[in-house]
Amino acid sequence: MFLNTLLVVLTDLAARLLGNTVFRQHFHLLLSAVVMFSPALSFWVSQHSIFAKRSHFLYRIFLRSGWGWTCVFVGSFVFLLSFSIRRSLALSIRHLSRLGVAGALWFIFCKLLDQLENATGSCYESLITDAGDTNGQPLLVLREGESKSECLKAGMLWRGYEVSEDVFLLCLCCLLLAEEMAVFGPYLSLGGISDAPLRILFLFCVLLLGLWIFLLFCLLAYFPQFPTQLLGGALGCLSWRGLYQGWYRLGPSWYCPGRPGVGLLKTKTGSAEAEDAQLNHDHYN
Predict the structure, then answer these.
(1) CA-to-CA distance for 156 and 6, rounded, in angstroms?
(2) Which of 23, 67, 136, 210 is the most exposed place for a label (fewest CB within 10 A)?
(3) What are the domain boundaries of the chain?
């Protein structure tokens, strides 16, 4: 009984925060400020911290498969919420298709960024010189005619025009999580009934959002690469704006999955007008 009460209180508080108009208006600005100013933390954080190692289990387990974790938790929450309300598989698939669209966009951008790095990069061989020559720093010798794959296989360095795919992914996942979970607050306020499994999934999504923000801080503070990380964050924010603030506002159709919550929210009396008013308030203000 106590655990159930605690679950209800925590999920209600989180749903109220994520569904708040002020939070939804300014979350992307907060994320942008994190990307812009967090690299300055590199002057204060300790490079002996466990988070300063790329081999840390948080990076290995979560960051390398960040999109998979996001799809599993957000997809489960969206499907369970939509199917439990309307019992329509087609409607649930339509709402899940937003994840498919975002995943396809992420995959395409990663391929394009990889091609950009290949086209603008060069291969360098690291040669250790005497300490008196370059203060103990390795000397990089250009190797002509090497492709990126051949260069890396030979144990050499590839330097090209990079955009941080990790920061791009984390920003996109954070904004996607905030959008998809924001509908839970209005749903509860309109009298929606939610059982323990739905609340637990929602809470897991909240924890995942917190983890992505924490990992974003760690990457920016412990591994600062300001130009590439700034571009990655900008690309993530632009992807979110193009999808959730642009395309999805066109409304549900054969070419558009629509906004989160469309066709799901309703009052206790089933008023469609109240549903539209609630969605307009939450998504347009």
Answers:
(1) 54
(2) 136
(3) 1-43+53-83+165-277
